[in-house]
Design goal:
The chain starts with a helix and ends in a 6-residue tail after the last strand. The N terminus is likely disordered. It has a three-stranded antiparallel sheet with strand order 1-3-2, covered by helices on one side. By secondary structure, the chain is mostly helical. The protein has two domains: 133 residues, no CATH class; 69 residues, Structural maintenance of chromosome 1. Chain E (Arc Repressor Mutant, subunit A), CATH 1.10.10. It is 49% helix and 4% strand. Helix 1 crosses helix 4. The protein is built from nine helices and three strands, in the order ααααααααβαββ.
Length: 272
């Protein structure tokens, strides 16, 4: 019926594949199994196989011719008394609807147009073809355990572990405490630094100023042969004592320039 129309239209028809089990069944007088061959999983696989048998680009394939081939396939399978699966029948009904929509005049409606449905079918076939090609490339690669084999146990020195001592956390902490207890604690000694108090410096500067009225540097009031630490303390205390005497009006201070030596002398009218 539909195959005859396709033949009269000059369109090539498909040759139906049969596997080895189908050929043996035909020889035995039984109905051959002609579906689910070569990894077919659904109607799209059948459509893709029919399209490939025409040796045309999926983007240029005629949806009408593809529909005719599919419906012819379903009709021939029915003549062989093959139990058709539900998804094949649904695809056949949908393709019949698509063919009628492509042949009938266009009607203004919100549903997708027949051209859009045909384009969607072409895109699905292209995706299925790309996935099957990728799967074929993966299956063609070397497989572990068939084409390539892993190396056995790696060579190397054999290691034998022998436990010398076993203990727990409590024993470890106890041993650490015993070691720390044997260690002598460190005692820190703070050395007493020699210092000159402010009262001592004030008494010393006052006594030395009562002898002369000449200018004297602050360093002249430091004790001779003193340790470096004591000289620093005596210099600071003597400076504060000189400021205190100048505040009381008993002495005067002078410094010619910045960072120059600081000099001090007793005032003439000040009591010794």
């Amino acid at each position: 019926m539909l195959a005859g129309e396709a033949a009269r239209a000059g369109e090539p028809t498909a040759e139906w594949p049969e596997d080895e089990a189908g050929k043996q069944g035909a020889r035995a007088g039984e109905t051959p199994l002609i579906l689910e061959l070569d990894g077919w999983e659904g109607p799209l696989d059948l459509l893709l196989d029919l399209a490939r048998r025409q040796k045309v680009d999926l983007r240029q394939i005629s949806i009408l011719a593809l529909v005719d081939q599919y419906l012819t396939y379903i009709e021939r399978a029915g003549e062989m008394r093959l139990e058709l699966a539900a998804d094949y029948l649904v695809m056949a009904a949908w393709l019949a609807y698509l063919k009628s929509a492509l042949l009938l005049p266009k009607d203004e409606q919100e549903d997708p147009s027949p051209e859009e449905l045909a384009l969607r079918l072409q895109l699905r076939l292209q995706r299925l073809s790309a996935m099957r090609e990728a799967a074929a490339r993966l299956m063609a690669r070397d497989r572990l355990g068939r084409d390539i084999f892993l190396r056995g146990r790696p060579e190397g020195l054999r290691t034998d572990r022998k436990t010398v001592w076993k203990s727990d956390a409590y024993a470890l902490i106890q041993a650490y405490g015993q070691v720390k207890a044997r260690t002598a604690p460190r005692i820190y000694h703070v050395a007493n630094r020699p210092v000159m108090t402010l009262d001592s410096a004030l008494e010393r500067v006052s006594a030395m100023l009562g002898v002369t009225l000449e200018w004297m540097e602050i360093r002249d009031f430091l004790p001779p042969h003193a340790e470096p630490a004591l000289r620093k303390s005596a210099l600071a205390s003597s400076f504060v004592a000189a400021l205190e005497l100048a505040k009381m009006g008993r002495a005067e201070l002078a410094q010619e320039e910045a960072f120059a030596p600081l000099r001090i002398r007793r005032l003439k009218d000040a009591a010794a």
